[in-house]
Amino acid sequence: MTRVGLRRPGIYKSRDEMRSMIRPGLLTAESLDAVAAAIRPGVSTLELDAIAEKVIRDGGGVPNFMLVPGYSHTVCASVNDEVVHGIPGERVLRAGDIVSIDSGAEVDGWNGDSARTFVLDAADATEVDFERRRLNRVTEEALWHGIAALATARRLDEVGGAIEDHVESQGVFGIIEDYTGHGIGRSMHEDPPVFNYRVSGRSPVVKPGLVVAIEPMITLGTIDTVTQADDWTVSTTDGSDAAHWEHSVAVHDGGIWVLTAADGGASGLAPLGIRPVPIA
Ligand code: MG
Ligand code: MG
After folding, report:
1. How far apart, in whole angstroms, are the C-alpha atoms of residue 210 and residue 270?
2. How close is the Cα of 137 to the center of ligand 1, in Å?
3. What is the Å distance from ligand 2's center to 213 Cα?
4. 5 C-alpha vs ligand 1 centroid, how far in Å?
5. What superfamily in CATH does domain 15-272 come from?
6. Which of the ligands is closest to the CA of residue 213?
7. Which of 89, 92, 112, 120 could form a disulfide with 24 if both were Cys (CB 3.0 to 4.6 A apart)?
8. DSSP of 84-137, one letter per residue?
9. Is this structure's pTM higher than 0.70?
């Protein structure tokens, strides 16, 4: 029996619902493009937050992180040993810092969620900078391997398997397990969880209507995290550096489309032989 108006929300969305997620996805991407253009040694994370907020509001959206109870900023800015959920503030970025910026826009009740990590140029590259760049490259690659896996996966857990396999093929890194990717739609965080490593047990079927935020968080050391006294900032327990990349991705009749990339993920997926298809 179906009771109109009481339909239990499932994890699969209609094509029209997925189309509603195109605009917030692109606006999220634009906010990160603006951050990418502005981030450099000498800028504070609060300045980057203001830049992202202006782009989202000018584009007719609302910064969806502000809709999370207790959080009052547009982005999370996580520096060096901070993994995720760093609060923007007066901290001035320095040459060689590795900085994850996580942003999200809500438009007409639909959400986008994406993160990129930047290693700030240093005049004299040190061994630390080199390791941070390697970490950042592997984490971004891991994201694209996870997205590519989604294109052909029968079950969602294949995404985590692909991320784990790529990271392990590149050396010794820590894959954070305390935090995962997630479904996304009318809420920024929905079921199902998207693990960044191989899991056992039942995993959702990958079929048209699945929209997920895939977000590997990788470190140069431990997988253990601690939440700082500000109740938000998540850091590695051993002080090792971390990187974080994220995209919101839709599975539809024609294939997959990366909602938070202006090109739908074409450039990131090309090396992996996957061509994204716009949602018709
Ligand atoms: Mg995010
Ligand atoms: Mg997310």
Report:
1. 22
2. 18
3. 6
4. 30
5. Creatinase/methionine aminopeptidase superfamily (3.90.230.10)
6. 2
7. 112
8. E-PPP-SPBP-TT-EEEEEE-EEETTEE--EEEEEE---SS--HHHHHHHHHHH
9. yes
Q: Where are the beta strands (DSSP E) in 20-104?
A: 62-63, 75-79, 82-84, 98-103
Tens digit of each residue's pLDDT (9 = 90 or more) over 82-98: 999 999 999 999 999 99
**pLDDT tens for each residue of 11-30:** 999 999 999 999 999 999 99
Whether residue 192 has a cis bond before it, omega within 30° of 0? yes
- Structural domain spans, the chain: 15-272
pLDDT band at 9 (very low <50, low <70, confident <90, very high): low
- Of the pLDDT bands very low, low, confident and very high (cuts 50, 70, 90), residue 128 is confident
Taking alpha carbons only, the member of 162, 244, 263, 249 closest to residue 213 is 249
Determine the distance separating the centroid of ligand 1 and the alpha carbon of 3, expressed in angstroms.
Answer: 35
Residues with CB under 5 A from ligand 1 (ion): 102, 113, 115, 246
Ligand closest in space to the Cα of 245: 1
